[in-house]
């Protein structure tokens, strides 16, 4: 495919980085469609990793110290060490505070930072602790602004100056603007760094320019959760502090959430809950790291979650164990629904109505003292109506134990026992994860599992709930407090507004100019190509229709290979930034000098603003922005001293927020249209999806396709990597250097596939080659590989050659399609 002529990292270039001189030589970093692996490691050649308990576990001292006695050496080292803090704001749910040890201008070790008010919470993982080697590796970093000189994708770049880069980019933006209007210039920030300046600078610039930004959650595959949550709770997030399970849950159901790898800071509370006697049930097609701490692993067919929850709902209702009081008072269960058009019956002032048995007539739902039934059939002014619960009960009745078993692959007896233990646990808490939403019509699983909790009466109850996200992030209002915690007004003032478009439509915007023509894209904090569905479609159709592609990234990525300009961004140890993670605020100052000529995203946008006459909106340096944000008027910042806070990397808000584990919906107030927990969604009537139901996976239910490609393939988030960011971490090469393809012996044997064989995984869209990992830890008929690994790490290709972006009419109607990354069928053979 992409033939290498000269490699940036080939042995003849080994003594000097090709990016070091301005000799205008093309830089090749592509070999056979893969980024070439480095052949040597420069920069810091040594590393000390300090364990979570604070002890040094590995390391060797710098040369000068080697001549000293060990004790003197340690003393000298510690005297010379300065400490600096960073927020690990990669998109890993933990967002840990990191304490960096800096010596002679280099980061030499990282350990967990202390968390005021929550000494139990300090956390950092091997990824972040060893990452300093990748950060300080000049051969992996983008060191200078680079301009493409070969074909797109050829990987041929030359070094240019910042001035030239920004001048030319500004010129090309203005060209696209003059052809199609300012919205043709788009700024795509994904999730690569969630700190405020890194994440928001480019999209803020888009607003100032009148450009386009993207509502990224759809294409990213995390939007099913938001849709499902919003339908039932009215808000897209809502969770119990994990300490609540530790203290109050008798059963904890971890549903499609591999938190032992993906939310490491929370695992300790789950383990302690189990030690206290709570039963841990884990639902996943895969025996993941989290399954190892569970009492029970329930393997489930991917996309089967809504069916399992409906089967349990049905069993609970059939056994008359549902919480009628909760359903009547706090859910939509008692609200009357018209038989004729499926809308809620409205009374005077558009009031939702319930049936008053005593008076024998319909009354507004908020009438005091009415005990509204959730069953029955009534006539109101000639209109036949039923309480919404009847619709749920009838829909759930189709999910008998036998049918549920067929749809989920879970044996009848397991479903029945699980339903019984769940309803008897009083309470049981459910923690939902992203694995539940990676099939077509992804919102169904979240809304259905949450509805199971509502039927059980566990919503808003300590130790209960059906939570998405979770952990500690919560806001606890202080009585009488009105001042905002942050002064964001100036940052929010952008003159114009950005044109925000659903990310599910990005391919068609580039190719068909529908609904907006896109001609220029600036990617930052995004490895777009590696992390979005259907990579062939992006390479062959989307990118060729964009006239200018800019990538700002600290590292060379697969996406950067297709860029016209690659700009060196700073890493999280090299910039000023702020991360609001209530009850804490992380304040980050540079621990080391930026490598090469790298600049922060804010600095880049400030330079670009100067070129296009928008400098009035970018008057501050990054440090000045960060200093301007904490609001001393707010009680959250009482006693705050910026410089003191920066010294310890953070500020803990003194507003009593650590006192007890917070839970959501305790007040039974929901921001849904009805103000109640809402399993009956009026806006979905036209899709016949007003109440939760199971919609089967798209490709698996296509029998012709399934005959050709019989295995359902899923990708999951892995302990080795936060998305694409740690696979090229030299220190972790001793653990794993490539993604592995998990396959059950029942599927491997007939295909002659043995553990370690190189295999070809393919469907009509493309193929990838990886090594087989034959294991009973995955259900027969299902295969899995870690997401995030880039083409240079597979034997050949990339997992996104297999995936697809198929728009779902129901999801587009409600908000936007969620990438169904796991809704794909494949076949495998020995390569
Ligand atoms: N098949 C499949 N695809 C998936 C998923 C899956 O499970 N399966 N998961 C999806 C999910 S949930 C998500 S959230 C997305 C994540 O997708 P991305 O957000 O693209 O993933 P990352 O690799 O974390 O980050 C992108 C880039 O940000 C860069 N970066 C880091 N810090 C900075 C900075 O300060 N400035 C700049 N300019 N760049 C920086 C990193 O070097 C990296 O190249 O992927 C989605 N894609
Ligand atoms: N180490 C690490 N941590 C991370 C990330 C990372 O990349 N690396 N990414 C962060 C981000 S942005 C996200 S979105 C989260 C994602 O983290 P999680 O919520 O844990 O999501 P996944 O890893 O995608 O899937 C979780 C589990 O669901 C299983 N699964 C797949 N399909 C199904 C299904 O249909 N039903 C059920 N019940 N289970 C299924 C998978 O096998 C997997 O073990 O992690 C965050 N934390
Ligand atoms: S990668 Fe995740 S768990 Fe590791 S230090 Fe960063 S935020 Fe914490
Ligand atoms: Mo995500």
- Strand line-up of the largest beta sheet: 1-10-9-26-25-24-11-12-23
Q: Helix share of residues?
A: 25-40%
Distance between the termini: 18 Å
Radius of gyration: 28 Å
**Assembly context of the chains:** single chain
**What structural category characterises the helix and strand content?**
alpha/beta
Family: Belongs to the prokaryotic molybdopterin-containing oxidoreductase family.
Keywords: Iron, Iron-sulfur, Metal-binding, Molybdenum, Oxidoreductase, Signal
Domain 4Fe-4S Mo/W bis-MGD-type: 81-139
Protein name: DMSO reductase subunit A
Please describe what this structure looks like.
It is globular, with a radius of gyration of 28 Å. The protein has 27 helices and 36 strands. The protein is of the alpha/beta class and 831 residues long. The chain binds ligand MGD (2 copies), iron/sulfur cluster and molybdenum atom.
Question: What layout of secondary structure does this protein have?
Answer:
Elements: E1 27-28, E2 30-31, E3 34-35, E4 48-50, E5 56-58, H1 63-66, H2 70-80, E6 82-87, E7 97-103, E8 106-112, H3 126-130, H4 132-135, E9 146-148, E10 156-159, H5 162-180, E11 185-189, H6 196-209, E12 212-215, H7 217-220, H8 223-233, H9 242-248, E13 251-255, H10 259-262, H11 264-276, E14 279-283, E15 296-298, H12 305-318, H13 324-329, E16 336-338, E17 353-356, E18 361-364, E19 378-380, E20 383-387, H14 388-397, H15 401-408, H16 412-425, E21 428-432, H17 443-455, E22 466-468, H18 489-492, E23 499-502, H19 506-511, E24 520-524, H20 528-531, H21 535-542, E25 548-553, E26 565-568, E27 577-581, E28 584-588, H22 601-611, H23 622-628, H24 642-648, E29 650-652, H25 703-708, E30 711-716, E31 740-743, H26 745-748, E32 758-763, E33 766-774, E34 782-786, E35 796-797, H27 809-814, E36 825-830
Parallel strand pairs: 4-8, 11-12, 11-24, 12-23, 13-14, 13-21, 14-15, 21-22, 24-25, 25-26, 30-34, 31-33
Antiparallel strand pairs: 1-10, 2-3, 4-5, 6-7, 7-8, 9-10, 9-26, 16-20, 17-18, 19-20, 27-28, 28-29, 30-36, 31-34, 32-33, 32-36, 33-35
The structure holds ligand MGD (2 copies), iron/sulfur cluster (SF4) and molybdenum atom.
């Amino acid at each position: 495919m992409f033939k290498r002529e000269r490699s940036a990292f080939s042995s003849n270039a080994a003594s000097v980085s090709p990016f070091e001189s301005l000799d205008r030589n093309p830089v090749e970093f592509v070999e056979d469609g893969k980024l070439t692996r480095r052949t040597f490691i420069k920069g810091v050649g040594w590393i000390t990793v300090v364990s979570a308990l604070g002890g040094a576990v590995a390391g060797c001292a710098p040369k000068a110290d080697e001549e000293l006695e060990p004790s003197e050496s340690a003393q000298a080292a510690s005297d010379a060490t300065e400490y600096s803090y960073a927020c690990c704001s990669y998109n890993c749910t933990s967002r840990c505070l990191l304490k960096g040890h800096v010596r002679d201008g280099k980061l030499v070790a990282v350990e967990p930072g202390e968390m005021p008010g929550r000494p139990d919470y300090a956390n950092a993982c091997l990824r972040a602790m060893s990452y300093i080697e990748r950060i300080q590796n000049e051969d992996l970093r983008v060191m200078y602004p680079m301009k493409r000189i070969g074909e797109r994708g050829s990987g041929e770049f030359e070094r240019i100056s910042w001035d030239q880069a920004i001048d030319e980019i500004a010129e090309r933006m203005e060209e696209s603007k003059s052809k199609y209007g300012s919205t043709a210039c788009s700024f795509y920030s994904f999730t690569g760094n969630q700190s405020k300046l890194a994440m928001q600078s480019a999209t803020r610039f888009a607003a100032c320019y009148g450009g386009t930004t993207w509502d990224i959650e759809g294409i990213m595959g995390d939007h099913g959760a938001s849709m499902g949550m919003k339908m039932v709770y009215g808000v897209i997030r809502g969770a119990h502090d994990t300490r609540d399970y530790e203290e109050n849950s008798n059963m904890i159901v971890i549903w499609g959430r591999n938190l032992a790898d993906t939310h490491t800071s929370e695992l300790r509370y789950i383990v302690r809950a189990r030690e206290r006697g709570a039963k841990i049930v884990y639902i996943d097609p895969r025996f993941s790291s989290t399954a190892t701490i569970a009492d029970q692993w329930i393997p489930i067919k991917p996309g089967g979650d809504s069916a399992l929850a409906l089967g349990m709902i049905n069993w609970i209702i059939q056994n008359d164990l549902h919480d009628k009081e909760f359903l009547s008072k706090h859910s939509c269960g008692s609200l009357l629904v018209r038989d004729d058009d499926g809308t809620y019956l409205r009374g005077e002032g558009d009031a939702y109505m319930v049936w008053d048995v005593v008076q024998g007539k319909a009354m507004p739902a908020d009438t005091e003292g009415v005990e509204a039934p959730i069953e029955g059939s009534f006539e109101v002014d000639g209109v036949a109506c039923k309480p919404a619960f009847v619709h749920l009960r009838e829909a759930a009745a189709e999910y008998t134990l036998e049918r549920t078993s067929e749809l989920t692959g879970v044996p009848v007896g397991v479903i029945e026992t699980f339903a019984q233990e769940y309803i008897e646990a009083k309470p049981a808490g459910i923690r939902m994860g992203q694995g539940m939403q990676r099939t077509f019509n992804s919102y169904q699983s979240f809304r259905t599992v949450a509805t199971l909790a509502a039927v059980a009466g566990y919503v808003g109850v300590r130790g209960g709930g059906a939570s998405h996200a979770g952990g500690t992030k919560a806001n606890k209002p202080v009585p009488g407090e009105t001042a905002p915690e942050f002064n964001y007004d100036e940052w929010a003032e952008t003159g114009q507004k950005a044109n925000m478009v659903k990310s599910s439509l990005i391919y068609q915007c580039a190719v068909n100019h529908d609904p907006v023509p896109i001609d220029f894209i600036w990617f930052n904090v995004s490895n777009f190509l590696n992390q979005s569905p259907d990579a062939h479609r992006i390479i062959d159709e989307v990118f060729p229709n964009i006239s200018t592609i800019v990538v700002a990234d600290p590292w060379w990525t697969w996406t950067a290979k297709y860029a016209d300009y690659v700009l060196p961004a700073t890493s999280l140890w090299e910039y000023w930034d702020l991360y609001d993670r209530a009850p804490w605020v992380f304040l980050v100052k540079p621990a080391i000098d930026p490598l090469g000529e790298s600049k922060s995203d804010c600095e880049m946008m400030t330079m670009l603003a100067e070129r296009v006459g928008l400098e009035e909106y970018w008057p501050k340096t990054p440090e000045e922005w960060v200093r301007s944000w904490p609001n001393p008027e707010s009680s959250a910042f009482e006693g705050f001293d910026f410089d003191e806070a920066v010294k310890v990397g953070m500020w803990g808000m003194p507003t009593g927020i650590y006192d007890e584990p917070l839970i959501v919906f305790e007040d039974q107030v929901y921001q849904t249209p009805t103000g109640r927990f809402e399993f009956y969604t009026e806006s979905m009537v036209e899709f016949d999806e007003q109440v939760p139901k199971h919609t089967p996976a798209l490709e698996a239910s296509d029998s012709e396709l399934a005959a050709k490609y019989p295995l359902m393939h899923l990708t999951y988030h892995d302990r080795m990597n936060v998305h694409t960011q740690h696979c090229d971490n030299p220190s972790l090469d001793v653990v794993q250097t490539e993604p592995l393809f998990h396959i059950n012996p029942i599927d491997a044997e007939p295909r002659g596939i043995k553990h370690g064989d190189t295999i070809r995984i393919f469907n009509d869209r493309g193929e990838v080659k990886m090594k087989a990992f034959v294991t009973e830890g995955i259900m027969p008929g299902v295969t899995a590989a870690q997401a995030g690994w880039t083409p240079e790490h597979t034997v050949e290709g990339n997992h996104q050659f297999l995936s697809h972006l198929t728009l779902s009419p129901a999801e587009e109607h409600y908000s936007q399609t969620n990438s169904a990354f796991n809704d794909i069928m494949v076949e495998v053979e020995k390569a």
